């Protein structure tokens, strides 16, 4: 970041089955917070999860179910919950995590998290929703669906959402067409198109 001007980091989920809430990664999180470096998280399910939950179909179906069709998204959401429940954001309140795909289903589940994972149970300083609204940022990443977008913004606010296309996995033209058709004010469109990312990444 200091020498080459990188604005943050990308971490592809678990590392040999260990997630970022593991104490092993505390120096990484401590440094990221100190540098105001957001971490973009994506997740492949661990091999054992693929074998126990996604196998038993054709190779093509198992791959799609464990990755683009379900597993990537749910495993990333699980990783976020592990960070929250592991107290990472209580220890590092300025740390920012970015996830894609309109929040990996976390906004849909947000009321349920607060109803079932209350601070009295978790020992956290805040409800789960507080961390989802203060320590997470969310990109489109080829989830070009207006109802999904509306749910995300209703739960976390426009200031936490940023446009992305997920190229080459998704069409940049389809992503841009989706953004152009969203019923946004000029300020909302500017925030989602570039201002939120500029502020978060310091560019």
Strand content: 5-15%
Based on Cα principal axes, name the global outline. globular
Q: What's the CATH topology label?
A: TIM Barrel
Total domains: 1
CATH architecture: Alpha-Beta Barrel
Would you count the extended β strands for me? 5
Query: Over the alpha carbons, how many angstroms does the gyration radius reach?
Result: 17 Å
Strand order, main sheet: write it out: 1-2-3-4-5
Report helical residue fraction: 40-55%
Contiguous low-pLDDT stretches (5 residues minimum) are none
Outline of the structure:
The protein is of the alpha/beta class and 203 residues long. 51% of the residues lie in helices and 7% in strands.
Describe the structure.
By secondary structure, the protein is of the alpha/beta class. The chain has a single domain, classed as Alpha-Beta Barrel (TIM Barrel). It is 51% helix and 7% strand. It contains eleven helices and five strands. The chain has helices at residues 26-34, 47-54, 59-66, 71-85, 88-91, 106-116, 119-122, 128-134, 146-156, 172-181, 186-201, and strands at residues 9-11, 39-41, 97-99, 136-139, 161-162. Strands 1-2-3-4-5 form a five-stranded parallel β-sheet. Strand 4 (136-139), helix 9 and strand 5 form a beta-alpha-beta unit. Helix 6 crosses helix 9. The longest helix has 16 residues, at 186-201. It is globular and about 40 Å long. The model has no long low-confidence stretch (mean pLDDT 96).
């Amino acid at each position: 970041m200091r020498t080459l001007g990188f604005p943050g980091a990308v971490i592809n989920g678990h590392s040999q089955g260990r997630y970022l809430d593991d104490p092993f990664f505390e120096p990484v999180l401590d440094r990221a917070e100190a540098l105001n470096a957001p971490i973009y998280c994506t997740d492949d399910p661990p091999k054992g999860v693929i074998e126990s939950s996604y196998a038993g179909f054709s190779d093509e179906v198992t791959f799609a179910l464990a990755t683009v069709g379900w597993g990537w998204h749910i495993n990333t959401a699980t990783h976020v919950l592990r960070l929250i429940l592991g107290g990472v954001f209580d220890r590092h309140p300025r740390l920012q995590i970015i996830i894609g795909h309109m929040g990996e289903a976390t906004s849909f589940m947000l009321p349920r998290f607060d109803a079932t994972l209350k601070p009295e149970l978790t020992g956290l300083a805040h409800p789960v929703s507080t961390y989802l609204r203060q320590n997470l940022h969310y990109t489109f990443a080829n989830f070009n669906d207006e109802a999904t977008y509306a749910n995300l913004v209703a739960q976390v606010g426009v200031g936490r959402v940023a446009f992305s296309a997920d190229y080459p996995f998704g069409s940049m033209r389809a992503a841009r067409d989706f953004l152009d058709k969203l019923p946004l004010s000029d300020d909302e469109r500017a925030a989602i198109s570039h201002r939120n990312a500029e502020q978060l990444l310091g560019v």
